[in-house]
Amino acid sequence: MTPDAQSVLLAIAVSVGFMATVLIGAAAAPRLAVVLMGRVRCRATAAAGDPLRAEAVATHRWMSGPVPVIHPIARIATCGAFVLAVIWGADASLSGLAGHGAGAAVVRFACWVMLWFALLTAALCDATARVIPWETCFAIAGAGSALQLVSCGLASLFAGVVFGVVVALLCAVANRIGNRLGRGSQIGGGDVRCMAALSLASGSAAFAGFAACFLVVALFALAGRVLGKLKGAATVPLAPFFCVWLWVGAGGVLV
User: Fold this and answer.
1) What is the C-alpha to C-alpha distance for residues 26 and 28, in angstroms, rounded to an integer?
2) What is the mean pLDDT of residues 149-178?
3) Nearest to residue 198, comparing CAs of 236, 168, 172, 178?
4) pTM of the model
5) Are 202 and 231 in contact (CB under 8 A)?
6) Are 36 and 133 in contact, with CB atoms under 8 Å apart?
7) For the ranges 50-59, 140-149, 188-197, which has the lowest average pLDDT?
8) Of residues 137, 173, 141, the one with CA closest to residue 157
9) Is the pLDDT of residue 233 over 60?
10) Are the C-beta atoms of 210 and 100 separated by less than 8 Å?
11) If I label 242, which of 1, 4, 177, 214 is the partner at 20 to 30 A Cα–Cα?
């Protein structure tokens, strides 16, 4: 086979693989979100017999009814974000091919796609029913750890572990203060797990991702207060904003 024919076949294979990744991921994330929300409801309902966990069921109104339907705008936004992430990841992986080798580039791109698929699924669940399934957090932690090890090494992953522990401790302190003031827990367990997972995925850039994420959250909350959309003790789902954390914290390792 001539070199020109090999180049053409390689370009076709890459194009087909890219389109398959985009189409499968964009179509599967909303479906998986519905399945995971159903599992969350089943687990919480089963735990309702435990007095210590009954409150967890009572705080979710949708637990006694059908799984909420994902809004079409959320579906479109998720598909758009996934497509952009895949396109950028493919371009960055190809740009860094010379420095890391073909095998490492494939692994890094696969981890990047898995990270975004898991996080966008979590974002759909959080925006729809205010829950972040633990399955998505474990997927983010696993793919993110692999991405850090392949791209930046063990030292960067360890820095992410340390930052994740610090974030978890700060969240525990904030919830304890909120409970003592009678306001209840301010940060949900799913948010804490997701932030810990994102810390692993971001490595030494975890603080930059964290800062960028919560700066956007603060600006959004301020705009909501000014426009009257957020009133009293109303809060916003954090998982959609965690996309900013992932992009800032982990996007640089692909280059």
Assistant:
1) 6
2) 92
3) 168
4) 0.86
5) no
6) yes
7) 50-59
8) 141
9) yes
10) no
11) 177
Q: Which domain holds residue 34?
A: 3-254
Q: How far apart are CA 252 and CA 254, in angstroms?
A: 5
Q: Distance (Å, rounded) from C-alpha 116 to C-alpha 82?
A: 7
Residue 11: pLDDT band (50, 70, 90) is low
In whole angstroms, give the CA distance from residue 252 to residue 205.
Answer: 9
3-state secondary structure 165-190: HHHHHHHHHHHHHHHHCCCCCCCCHH
Backbone angles phi, psi at 139, to 5 degrees: -65, -40
Token pair, residue 200, equals 């692993």
Contact predicate 139/109, CB 8 Å: no
Sign of CA dihedral 101, 152, 29, 40: positive
Domains in the chain, number: 1
Q: Is 122 helix (H, G, I), strand (E, B) or coil?
A: helix
* Residue written as token pair 């916003």: 236
As a whole number of angstroms, the distance between CA 157 and CA 132 comes to: 23
The DSSP string of 75-119 is HHHHHHHHHHHHHHHHHHHHHTHHHH-HHHHHHHHHHHHHHHHHH
Quick one: how far is CA 215 from the chain centroid?
17
**Residue 162 and residue 141 in contact, taking contact as beta carbons nearer than 8 Å:** no
CA angle 34, 122, 171 (to 5 degrees): 135
Helices (H), ranges, the chain? 3-46, 54-58, 72-95, 97-100, 102-129, 134-151, 154-180, 189-202, 206-227, 242-250
Give pLDDT tens digits for 41-83: 888 777 666 555 555 555 666 777 788 889 989 988 888 888 8
